[in-house]
């Protein structure tokens, strides 16, 4: 796969977040035990801990075929609701979106169902005086009630579909501004090439690329 891998990436970002309600985990005691260190770090930071996550910033997709190749499923869907939660190891935070599937461009999902898509980063409230915010720089997060194309990785055991390449696999289909990539890095080749384009043409391009990828396997 032709992708550019950088040896190091330095990012300076301004922290911004909106507090979200966290749904209770299935096993609160287990999660609390795992997250003790994270909570203690937040308390030592005056009750508010900020972590910058650039773990996926070394990957740059050059064209659509590369992103499709790395995606288990591709859908057109509308975001309905989002919530933050601790990761299974209790050491980071993800924001999960409930997404109503409108069209399946690739994969075994069905139009009409609602799936959960997980994205890196978010805000977790341990208690009224202790919070942790995990920021992913240059990630333009999905907004509720908007239409997107989502490129998804393999579903996790708890039924969540991660975005492909951590934060690059979401593209808003906006009527006025056109295609809006989730990857807001100025040097992101694929994102900058499709930004502002016609949503209908963008969807046709994906359908054609998916069709070609199927034919190449036959």
Based on the model shown, name its key terms.
12 strands; 3-stranded mixed sheet; elongated; alpha+beta; 218 residues
Structural commentary:
This protein has a single domain, classed as OB fold (Dihydrolipoamide Acetyltransferase, E2P) (Beta Barrel). The longest helix has 19 residues. Strand 4 and strand 5 form a beta hairpin. By secondary structure, it is an alpha+beta fold. It is elongated, with a radius of gyration of 18 Å. The two termini are 19 Å apart. It has a 7-stranded mixed β-sheet with strand order 10-6-5-4-9-11-12. The chain has a 3-stranded mixed β-sheet with strand order 2-8-7, with helices on one face. It has a two-stranded antiparallel sheet with strand order 1-3. It contains 5 helices and 12 strands.
Total strands: the figure is 12
| Beta strand % | 25-35%
Cα end-to-end separation: 19 Å
Q: Give the helix/strand class.
A: alpha+beta
Count of runs of 4 or more consecutive helical residues? 5
Strand line-up across the major sheet: 10-6-5-4-9-11-12
Provide the succession of SSEs.
Answer: EHHEEHEEEEEEEEEHH
Large-scale geometry:
elongated
CATH architecture: Beta Barrel
Q: Determine the mean pLDDT.
A: 84
């Amino acid at each position: 796969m032709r992708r550019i891998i950088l040896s190091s990436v330095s990012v300076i970002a301004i922290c911004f977040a909106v507090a979200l309600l966290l749904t209770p985990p299935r096993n609160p005691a287990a999660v609390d035990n795992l997250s003790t260190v994270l909570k203690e770090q937040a308390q030592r930071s005056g009750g508010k801990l900020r972590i910058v996550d650039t773990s996926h910033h070394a990957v740059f997709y050059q064209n659509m075929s590369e992103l499709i190749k790395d995606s288990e499923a591709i859908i057109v869907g509308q975001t309905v609701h989002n919530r933050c939660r601790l990761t299974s190891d209790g050491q980071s935070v993800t924001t999960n979106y409930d997404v109503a599937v409108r069209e399946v461009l690739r994969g075994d999902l069905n139009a009409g169902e609602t799936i959960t898509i997980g994205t890196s980063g978010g805000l977790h409230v341990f208690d009224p005086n202790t919070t942790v915010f995990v920021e992913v720089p240059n990630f333009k997060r999905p907004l509720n009630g908007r239409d997107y194309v989502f490129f998804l990785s393999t579903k996790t055991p708890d039924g969540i579909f991660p975005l492909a390449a951590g934060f690059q696999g979401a593209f808003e289909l906006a009527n006025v501004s056109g295609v809006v990539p989730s990857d807001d890095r100025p040097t992101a080749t694929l994102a900058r090439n499709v930004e502002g384009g016609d949503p209908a043409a963008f969807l046709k391009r994906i359908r054609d690329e998916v069709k070609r990828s199927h034919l190449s396997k036959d």
